[in-house]
Specification:
Chain lengths: ~110, ~110
């Protein structure tokens, strides 16, 4: 297994544009987590899913952020419209039955 | 509220010296505590968890409920230990699977 796969690895966009980040969890895992990492705030949980259902989205900063998990092998995190303060590294992680979380390589987002 | 505090953003030691990365937490119940590590250009990965009470790569961490701490220790640091270390907490009430992370400590082991 290649582990958790995220795309793109780097994204540079202009303020106001829509950004979509993608994640493929490890096959068989039933939990999927989206995190944001910044120098100021560290690693923050944005939202997590269990069996494709959003369980806790209390970390989603505002309505500009949305996440979906249409099936067990794919999830997206969308920012629309994007702002410079959204610049960060976004991580996806997956786990089985709440055990060890396995992280993807992250997507480095820069909003100009 | 669940909170994890890592008071040191940066920690620098010499090879062979003991190292201790501090972690304090705030949680009303009995939490599960973890240490995650991110080596340069690698993914964040689990280093150890308090319930397994094991030593990984020479690191140990003991949960001290009285002091609400879960400090990570290693008696003799190696250069390959240089990395970003994150302490994390998972609550055991309500079936939540979310992890709350500290802001991390960057450890540099000098030759």
């Amino acid at each position: 297994d290649a582990g958790v796969i995220q795309s793109p690895r780097h994204e540079v966009t202009e303020m106001g544009q829509e950004v979509t980040l993608r994640c493929k969890p490890i096959s068989g895992h039933d939990y999927l987590f989206w995190y944001r990492q910044t120098m100021m705030r560290g690693l923050e949980l944005l939202i997590y899913f269990n069996n494709n259902v959003p369980i806790d989205d209390s970390g989603m900063p505002e309505d500009r952020f949305s996440a979906k998990m249409p099936n067990a092998s794919f999830s997206t995190l969308k920012i629309q419209p994007s702002e410079p303060r959204d610049s960060a590294v976004y991580f996806c992680a997956s786990s089985y039955e709440g055990n060890e979380q396995f992280f993807g390589p992250g997507t480095r987002l820069t909003v100009l | 509220a669940q909170r994890v505090t890592q008071p040191e953003k940066l920690l620098s030691v010499f090879k062979g010296a003991p190292v201790e990365l501090k972690c304090n937490y705030s949680y009303s119940g009995s939490p599960e505590l973890f240490w995650y590590v991110q080596y340069s250009r690698q993914r964040l990965q689990l280093l150890l968890r308090h319930i397994s009470r094991e030593s990984i790569k020479g690191f140990t961490a003991d949960l001290n409920k009285g002091e609400t701490s879960f400090h990570l220790k290693k008696p003799f640091a190696q250069e390959e230990d240089s990395a970003m270390y994150y302490c994390a907490l998972r609550g055991t009430q309500g079936g939540s699977e979310k992890l709350v992370f500290g802001k991390g400590t960057k450890l540099t082991v000098n030759p």
